[in-house]
Amino acid sequence: LSEAKAKETGVVTTVAFEVLRYDPAKDRATRMEEYSVPVTKAMTVLDGLVWIKEHRDPALSWRSSCRMGICGSCGMFINGLPRLACNNQIVHLHSKRVTIKPLPNFDIIRDLVPDLERMFGLHRAVKPYLIRKDRTEQNRPAGEYFQSQQELADYIQFAHCIKCGLCLSACPTVATSKSFTGPQSLAQAWRYTLDSRDEGAAEREGEIFSDHGVYRCHFAGACSHVCPKGVDPALAIQLAKKDAFFRSFGLRKKRQASSVAPPVQPGGESKDIPKAPEPTVRQDS
Amino acid sequence: MRESRLWLWHILSAIVILVFLGIHMGIMHMDAILGALGAEYGDPVRAADVFRRSRQLLFMISYIVLLGSALFHGLYGLRSMLWELSLSKALEKAAGRLCAIAGFALFIYGSYVAVAVFRMGEVRP
Predict the structure, then answer these.
(1) Chain CA centroid to CA B41, Å
(2) What pTM was estimated for this model as a whole?
(3) Torsion over CA: A275, A276, A277, A281 (sign)
(4) Cβ contacts (< 8 Å) between A205 and chain B: which residues?
(5) Nearest to A86 by CA among A60, A68, A112, A63
(6) Which of A1, A39, B24, B80 would suit a FRET pair with A126, their CA atoms being 20 to 30 Å apart?
(7) Is B118 in contact with B58 (CB distance < 8 Å)?
(8) A205, B11: Cβ pair inside 8 Å?
């Protein structure tokens, strides 16, 4: 493109998008289709797919929502790596050809839409929520739980998981073993077990330390490498193994779960907390 | 948890293998240095010296411990590999049992050999 034309249209280059297509109603097998996409500055792979849908093929299917790397919907296999389509600018791929396939290790529903049912099933199985021994407290919390900065720091990086499934698609064990619990759910199980407010470690042990739990991890670290939020599932799995090791020798410190903070009496708030601003929207009484 | 226990033994057996293989390497390849330090184990590969070592209680015990550790470590690893092939539950169970039976049988046989050699008389070259 000439410099003047690029300035006028904003298009900086043209890139060939090679996209995997599959319609279960029509196709017996997957096929690759190529589209020439004019690329503007800061255009993401997701924007490229939107351009194809608007200008070339309205039947092209994928899953996306927030467009800012938060919802975890647009995980795809882009130029040989599992990535979020909204989080990767085309020019940053440094290639004239962008190959897009659905996430590996998942069944395909259609085109670039993977079937995430198994991942969410495994996620649910590890009980990814705070569990209290007192079921009344669990169902009707009496207040906030005390938690120190250090206790928060122990698990906070694992709490950034957006359930995009990139870790599962990069995992070499998931690629061969359908029974492996997988890095996503194991990391989440460990996230809640590490949480000082939680008392459900025993309820999650069955999944974490099962025949197909943490001990099947080969520590390839691919899950941590591809995570778009910087979560380190491989670390969570190793921490779980370390915990099991020390527990076997009775060297694990017993942890007291956080207690419930007494309700703050009117006028008893800390003076350091700034006052909330007045609501800008009229509140109906 | 059963799997946690097995994995723990897998790690501990690796440490045992490391120590005993270290001793084995020392005796096989550093005999001159060990000799200079006053630890005389004879020629590493001469049959008579091998038998002489095997008739020492410490060596017999170390052979059996190394055999058990290596068998457990190797067969647990083999079972893990087989379990990653997405086998059916029944096949997984069968693979696990086969590894356990093979390991037990080889351990009994290997231990028998170590004890039999320990109890043997003098071997003349």
Answers:
(1) 20
(2) 0.84
(3) negative
(4) 1
(5) A68
(6) B80
(7) no
(8) no
Q: Tell me the per-residue pLDDT of A62-103, one tens digit each, with 9 for 90 and over.
A: 999 999 999 999 999 999 999 999 999 999 999 999 999 999
Q: Could you tell me the CA-to-CA distances from A179 to A75, A82, B89 in Å, in that order? A: 22, 21, 10
Q: In what helix (H) or strand (E) does residue A38 lie, and over which residues does it extend?
A: strand A31-40
Predicted complex: ipTM over 0.85: no
Nearest to B4 among A173, A176, A244 (CB): A244
Q: At A37, is the secondary structure helix, strand, or coil?
A: strand
Dist. CA A282–CA A97, nearest whole Å = 52
- CB–CB of B69/B111 below 8 Å? no
pLDDT digits (tens, 9 = 90+) for A150-176: 999 999 999 999 999 999 999 999 999
Question: By CA distance, what is B87's nearest residue in A?
Answer: A177
- Rounded to 10°, the helix B89-118/B47-54 angle is 100
**Helices then strands, each counted (H, E), chain B:** 5, 0
* Cα–Cα distance for residue pair B6/A47, rounded to 1 Å: 50
Sign of the Cα torsion B29, B33, B37, B43 reads positive
Per-residue pLDDT of B27-79, as tens digits, reads 888 877 777 777 777 777 888 888 888 888 998 999 999 999 999 999 999 99
- Pair B48, B121: CB distance under 8 Å: no
How far, in Å, CA of A61 to CA of B85, rounded? Answer: 32
Task: Specify which residues A33 forms β-bridges with.
Answer: A19
**Which residues of chain B are within 8 Å of residue A220 when distances are taken between CB atoms?**
none
Structure tokens at A150: 């250090």
Between CA A215 and CA B2 the distance in angstroms is: 12
Query: Six-digit token pair at A24?
Result: 């279960």
Cβ within 8 Å of residue B120, ≥6 positions away: B51, B55
Q: Are A39 and A15 in contact (CB under 8 A)?
A: yes
